[in-house]
Amino acid sequence: MIAILCNHLFFTIHCNMFTFQKGEKLKSRKTIGKLFTEGKSFISYPIRFVWVKMESPLSEFPIQMALTVPKRSFPKAVNRNRLRRRIRESYRLNKHSIYTKLSSSSGQYGIMLIYIARETLDFHQIEEGIKKGLRKLPHRL
RNA sequence: ACUGCAAACCGCUCUAUCGUUUUGCUAAGCAAUUAGCGAAAAGGAAAGUCCGGACAACGUAGAGUACCACACCACCUAACGGAUGGGGUUUUUUUAUUAUCUUGAUAAUAAAGAAAUACAGAUAGUGUCGCAGAAAAUUACCGCCCUGAGCAAUCAGGGUAAGGGUGAAAACGUGCGGUAAGAGCGCACGACUUUUCCAAGUAAUUGGAAAAGUGGAUAAACCUUGUGGGUUGAAAUGCCACGUACAUUUCAGUUUUCCUUUUUGGAAAGUGGAGUUGCUCGCUCCAUUGUCUUGAAUUUUUGAGACAGCAGGAAGGGGUAGGCAGAUUGGGUUCGUCGGUAACGAUGAAACUAGAUAAAUGAUAGGGGCUUUUGUUUUGCUUUUGAGCGAAAUUGAGGUUACAGAAUUCGGCUUACAGGUUUGCAGUUUUU
After folding, report:
1. Which one of 3.30.420.10, 3.40.50.2300, 3.30.230.10, 3.30.465.10 gives the CATH number of domain A2-140?
2. pTM value > 0.90
3. Assuming Cys at both sites, which of A20, A46, A65, A135 could form a disulfide with A92, CB separation 3.0 to 4.6 Å?
4. Predicted ipTM > 0.95
5. Which of residues 62-121 of A touch strand B (CB under 7 A)?
6. How many CB atoms lie within 10 A of CB A20?
């Protein structure tokens, strides 16, 4: 009995650490449309954070995330893919800080990360922006 | 050895940590699913979406027409506008021969090599042809000749296209005959086109002979001939689940005739609408029904109007946008053998090698290889003894790149590309 409980605890902690699963992806078209019409935002260079509170949670995670790189500033699909992977990787490595702060408060939030820089930055610069934004975000919610 | 061009091939690699997608086994769970251990995971162009297929949906018989594509021959292919081989034409280089004169140039012919080529028809018809020139396709400016008028200069009418001039191109070139002057008007030689015959070749075509002819260019102007083509594309399409509104506005039709009549039913035409692969004809289908008010006629007929219904068109609006199949084993890949000049075909063996869907295939750190550059050491050549050029070793600092990311799938084409390897051709330098 205790072993099963411990096992279960380990699973939850492990899941929240560094993985990025399907339930954390924002897929609902309704929520994305709502983000663009009534979402609030701030800028933590080179990323713009847009968020909105959802009425009913779609999964057990406190945040569902989507990310975009505008086609206008990066017309080649290769560059867009590279930036999208760097942003997702840095979000995956740093999201645990905001998960611990939000687990107590109820409700689920949808977040959209928009890349606003004009040139392709390397991984460390993007990670700095993500870290700063994730520190700021809990105070604004 | 270096440089340039063309073709073919390659398109950095290994380890650790943390992750993503699909999947095999094991365990847990009713199940959804979760965990552990493994396996696989983006290119030569995945790009452009330019051709051609596979596959799917959309036809109530059929016909005509429009539109589009292609165009020397053979062959390959599931198919192609693609590939392979051959032929013609044009341009160019080299060599040889002949002719001319300015004696080293020009022109012609032949052979060899290279490059280009949307390469059916200009003798079906219509159109166009800048500038110059009289005239750009039945033309006549200066000329030449004949006739008439006039003393003459010249004028009028007609014939001609030899000569001049313009042009990229002026109705085949040279010579002789011929003529009032001329003209392929006639003849000889030659050039070119078409047809027929003979020879070579599967054929395009080439060589020879004969006959007819002399026609400007342009079809990447319209067009003609021949061949082929239905349209739309995986957001296709099928199934399951969930959900919603035959609710709103608006448009047009609802007529006539005939047959049988107990009610009523049936048929034809017209009108309106829908389907019919772009259009037209034709074809198929649907609606054409009832109630009320009022007028005429007079006891069941008819005219007008209103309302509802019917089968539709248009506008605007509402709902959903989840899952499974399609969908990853294929005209495929690799390695052999045989046939073919080659594209390719036949046959044998082996392996299974992406399948996402707000869209996986990544991030970080370190090493190896490659490469750029700084310093030091050794060494070769040149030498004006200052140095310059090259090679090797070592050390430090960088870079690891270019073009570019599967989206149903296959064969091609086109375009982009850092760096490297091989082959061929051309040029320069050095040595023999």
Report:
1. 3.30.230.10
2. no
3. A20
4. no
5. 66-68, 76-78, 81-82, 84-86, 89, 92-93
6. 14
